[in-house]
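Human: If only I could read backbone structure tokens as easily as an amino acid sequence. Take your time, and here it is.
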Amino acid sequence: MLIVTERDLLPTRQPRPRTYLMCPPEHYVVEYAINPWMDTTTPVDTALAVKQWDGLRQTMVDLGHTVHVLNPEAGLPDMVFAANGAFVVDGVAYGAKFRYPQRADEAAGHRAFYEAREDYRFVAPTQINEGEGDFAYLPDAHGGIALAGYGFRTEPAAHAEAAEALGRPVISLKLVDPRFYHLDVALAALDDENVTYFPGAFSEASQRVLAQLFPNAVIADEADALAFALNLVSDGRNVVINTESAAFGEKVAAAGYHPVMVELGELKKGGGSIKCCIAELRD
């Protein structure tokens, strides 16, 4: 007799090859505090950070993805968080304009990367925004929409500017908990049409918007969010998360995805994890 389990009934998740941009943490230190996770009294092991970062880069390559590497610059320790440098959709790169002066000079390095390549068109921002830190794109959800966070870093006016630059609807979501200061530590795309998120990071109105848009979302709890589980990267099947987030890995596995665990603890000292280190180049 054939026994069918609940997991047998889950949809077959298919990965899609992606192109990413990463920047090695050769100059990574925590010398200032611009988010609640940064502690200038806690020593950072830069060599260990580089080793962990390279393990993440190799994981993405082993999963079949293309990884470009942005040259790090001395004096810009947060440049390792490459996701913050732009938001790219269909070859259009909407550039970042950082909230804090400590990170402002990172924007030029990202701009130079895109302008040096014929397959991207760079759009310079006038509004404060921090790239994929506060933007996520789902090409198959509701005809193709971007989700955009505000409340701590990115200005709401940047959402309209991004919509104009990219030609895509942008849904604004208000972040209300300073521990989750960027959208990418509160919400992530699991595939091209579905997300996972921690409701408590958002205003009540934004929670209602998310529930309406994504009735099948994987809901994370506060413990998941505090472990930076939502700061993940997924190719539609393989969900790359940090090793501190084992409980969340079980949740995505129960939804039919394949969790891939990577150690990135040294980068958490700067307020980032997997996604912060990886920008997706959607060309």
